[in-house]
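Board notes, transcribed. Complex of a protein with 2-deoxy-2-amino glucitol-6-phosphate.
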Amino acid sequence: MCGIVGYVGAREATPIILNGLKRLEYRGYDSAGVAVINGNQIEVRRDAGKLSQLIDLVAKSPVQGSPGIGHTRWATHGAPSARNAHPHLGNSGRMVVVHNGIVENFLELKDELTAEGVQFNSDTDTETIVHLAEHHQAAGVGLVEAARRTFKQIQGANVVVLLSADEPDKIVTARIGNAGGVVIGLGENENFIASDIPAILEHTRRVIFLESRQMAIVTRDSVRIETIDGQEVTPEIHTIAWDAVAAEKGEYRHFMQKEIHEQTRALTDTLAGRVDFKESRIRLPELNLTPELAKRIQRIYITACGTAAYAGMVGKTLIEKIARIPVEVVIASEFRYSDPILDENTVVLAISQSGETADTLAAMEEGRRKGAIIWSNVNAIGSQAMRVADGYISMQTGPEIGVASTKAFTAPLVDQYMLAILLADLRGVIDDKTRKELVADLRLIPDLVGRTLEREAEVEKVAHVLKDIRDCLYLGRGINMPIAYEGALKLKEISYIHAEGYPAGEMKHGPIALIDKNMPIICLVPKDPWHEKMISQIQQAKARDGMVIAIATDGDEIVAGMADHVLWIPETPWMLSPVITVLPLQLLAYHIAALRGLDVDMPRNLAKSVTVE
Ligand code: AGP
C-alpha cells in the first residue's frame, strides 16, 4: 500500500527518493510522484502507472534540489491517474503533501474549504490535508504549528508528510492511528523518512519508529519527536541488522521465487536460539510467558488476514492438540465487529508479516480494550503489531518483498508449533517423552524443506499442464485443510485463475457438482491422520472424471495408482506436514503465473501491506 520516502540533507533528493520508492514497490501501487524544493520553489513530477514511468518523466524533465518527498499511491479515493497521484500541492504552490491512509472526514473538510474558495485539483481525500495546512499557515503560524493543527483535524488512520517552500530546511510528518509505519532514518548531516525500512537501509541502519499520534520535525541535523498535542518525546533509536542485499533478487527471476527458496534458511533461523535440543525445551523470551501466565490462559483467539489467517488455522490444530487450550481463529476484519468475549485470561494472538495490517491492528486494539493478553507473531521488525503487544514471537525470515506471502507463511507454522510445546510444558500438560519427540522433530525441518524445494523441476512440469486452466479446486483435511485454502489463494492472487480451497469432506455437500474433466483438483494427501479419508475423496473425484494432482508422501503407491500427477514430498511428522505440503503449492502458483507472463511480485490490485480498512 502507499509508499513514502523523504530526504533532507546536502545530496540531491530525487535519486535517493526514486531509489527508495523502488524498494517499496512490493507494497503495491498504481501511480507515483516526487516533489523537491528547488531554490525557493517546489517542483512536482508525477504520473499514473509504474515507477519506471516516473523515472522516464524525471529523466526528460529533471528535478533538482533538497529536501524532497516521494510517494507511490495505491488508489482509494479517485482513479489511478496523474491528476490523483501524490504529491499534491496547495493552491499557493508553496506547500505539498504525500499521504498514506484515508481521511475519513474529508467530505466535510472539503465542503468547508470549498466554501472558503479553495480550489480542488484532484478527486483524492489527500488534497484536503495540504489545503488545511495552508489555511492554518495563512493565519500566521509556521509549518510545524500549521501541520499540528491539521493533524488534529483529520480523522482516520493516516500517515502524512508535509513540505513547505517557506521553510525549506525541514520535513514534517505524523502518524495518526494505525495507517502503516513511519520510519525516520538517522544519517550524518542528513535524515530520511520512509514507510518501511528497505527504502532507506542502504543509507542508514539507525532508525526511529513513530508511534500513533506522534509527529516528527526532521531537518538535516536534527529529529524532534512530539506528540500531536505538543509534548516532546524521547525516542528509542533502533539499529537494524538486516543486510541490504537481503532485499535484492539475486539469481532469481522474481522475489517470490527467491523467497520460496529462502525458506530453508528462514526456518533454520526460526529454530536458532529458540530450541534447546539438548534439554528438549523451547525458549521464546520476547513472549514474556511465565508459568503463572501460561496456566491462567483459558482461550486463545488467533486473528489475522489472508495467508496469515491460514497459518493461524494450522496453529489452532497445533495448540489445541499439544497444549490443550481452546483456540478460535477469527479473520481480523471481522474481529472487532463480532463483539468477542475476552477477558484477562484470554490471549489475542495476531499474526502478520507486515505488522501494519489495519484490520489486524484494530483486532489487537479490541483485545486491549477488553483487557485480554495481547501477543503477536510478526515479521517486520519494529512494526506496530510488534510494539503494541505484551509479548511477541518475531518471524526470522528477513524482508518479504513479493506480494504473495511464502516464507512468512511457513515461519508462523513453526513458531506456533514451538509456542504450543512451550505452553504445554509450562502448564504441565505434556509428558517428557512426547515433549522430547516433538522437539526432536523440529530438527528435521530445514532438511525436509530443502529436499522438497529441490523438486522444483517436477512442479514446473505440472505448471505447464495447468497454465491455461480457468478454475481449480484445492482439497485438504485436518491440519492440511488450511493448506488447501492457502494453495488456492496463492494461485488466484498471482495467476488470476479462479481457485477455491475446500475441506475435502464438504465436497459431497455441493462443490462435487463442479467436477468434470475440465476441473483440476489439487488434493493434499500426505501420510497424516486424514490420509485414508483423502484417498476416498480422490476416488470420488476420479469417478467424475476430474484431473487429480496429488501432493503425497514418497512411496505412496495408493496415491500413485490414482492421481493423474503427483508432486512428491518427503515423509514428515504429521504436525509439521503443512510446512512441507505448502511448498509445492507455492512453486506451482509461482510457475503458472510466470508461464502466463504475469507480474508475479506485484499482482494487479494488490498491496503488500494493507494499511486501510
Ligand atoms: C498473501 O499472499 C496475501 N498477499 C495477503 O493475504 C496477506 O497475507 C494479508 O494481507 C496479511 O498481511 P500481513 O501478514 O502483512 O498482515
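The chain has a mean pLDDT of 93. Residues 305-308, 352-354, 357, 360, 403-405, 493, 606, 609-610 surround 2-deoxy-2-amino glucitol-6-phosphate (CB under 6 Å).
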